[in-house]
Amino acid sequence: MNQYDWGPIREELSADVIVVGGGPAGMCAAIAAAREGVQVVLVEQGGSCGGMATQGMVGPFMTCYDRKGETMIIRGLFEEIVDRMVERGYAIHPSGVHAGTGFTSWIVLGHDHVTPYEPEGLKLVIDEMLEEAGVYILYHTSFLQPVLEVNTLTGILVSSKRGLDFIRGKVVIDCTGDGDVAVRSGVPYEMGNEELGLIQPATMFFHICNADEAAMEADIQANLHNFYRKDGVNYRSFHWRVSEAREKGDWNLKRVSLGLFRMPKPDEWCVNTSRLMGVDSTDNESLTRAEIDGRRQAEHIMHFLRKYVPGCENIKLKATASHVGIRESRHIRGDYRLTAEDLLSGTVPQDSILLAANSVDVHGRFGPTSNEYVAIGGDYYGVPYRSLIASGVEQLLIAGRCVSADSTAAGAIRVMPPCMAMGQAAGTAAAMAVKEKLTVREVDIHTLRQTLRERNVYLG
């Protein structure tokens, strides 16, 4: 390899499958591939897996059921992870969680059977599952650039405290959330909604404790009749308290309601309320400003909660997220671009590798206070394997929020249960390609789907 001013590039690692990014998609991709008997290296820039679920403290896991709330349709590794957390008190199983409760911030549409969970518990569970599967984990390691021979990925360059390393691999799975591997490999992409020139806003999630659930619930029930939607804006949880605080000069955020989601312990709540507009998660300066402003907003919200919301007088701040929560960035172009029409019409392609019923959830399209939430027409829709295959590059799969979809469709499948299911499918397909000496495009879809079914994936 070449010599650079900062030292030589070591070539010490090789793997059958390289997974870049250890978020919800990446952690499942790595486990799935390793369980199929191939060598897997997982590269993650942080100190744990989970991505938005742990470092971003995003919660709860959104629904994994069909539109009617009758059948759990996102299963496989997602269900196994949840079951392990439930056994240890880190989560509440979605079968016992219903819409219109504190677990859903009293939202009904699209929120039946969410999964409250503890991020710290998820970190432990994923570490254990990765090690059990035999994944070689590299935390505190940043992806730099792909290495290609003509248009085929043969490995990646990474950076860590020890310098630069070249990791050779047969298949690479891009689970970076922003599609970094794909973009640096020359794959086309869209940034947010290019037609409208918008990117969904980010949020600084934080967790509180020492809340009085009964007092909070009483205030909600006394005002539940006053939940409404007007001009693209939802007036929901505690909007009457926000209005009071705004009138008295104690609220300056561009939000009209609160997002408060009860966690497994009744006094602990996940706060999804701050609003950070125009954040570009592919730009470190933009992220820096977002996280500084996000922490300021968190403090503002804490002062408001203690002063205005019954049951929150004595709350304590458990933690703010170490990474601002990102809803949208790049949409990588794959062999098929999933559209909003595909989802809303309940289309299930023949090469579907997961079924989901998550509603289209787009924030900020009609201004900072707005939220567009559209339920699907059928019981569920399918995400095709073709949307995981990066366009124009061989041996590169994409999974997670950067999957090939238009901005509106991505507003549904960006949430964590579908991302985990995409990761499992990508890892399984990558392992098949390695073992059968195929390109990822040549993987037989019928065999892939059958293998996924054998791994407890629900495909109808």
Number of helices: 11
- List the domain count as a whole number: 2
The major β-sheet equals: 8 strands, mixed
Report the radius of gyration as a whole number of Å.
22 Å
| CATH superfamily placement of the largest domain | FAD/NAD(P)-binding domain
The whole-number mean of residue pLDDT values reads 96
Q: Would you tell me the structural class of the helices and strands?
A: alpha+beta
CATH architecture of the largest domain: 3-Layer(bba) Sandwich
* CATH topology call of the largest domain: FAD/NAD(P)-binding domain
Which strand-content bin applies to the residues?
15-25%
The CATH class designation of the largest domain is Alpha Beta
In angstroms, what separates the terminal alpha carbons?
49 Å
Level of helix content?
Answer: 25-40%
Query: What are the segments in which pLDDT stays under 50 over at least 5 consecutive residues?
Result: none
The total count of strands amounts to 20
Shape: globular
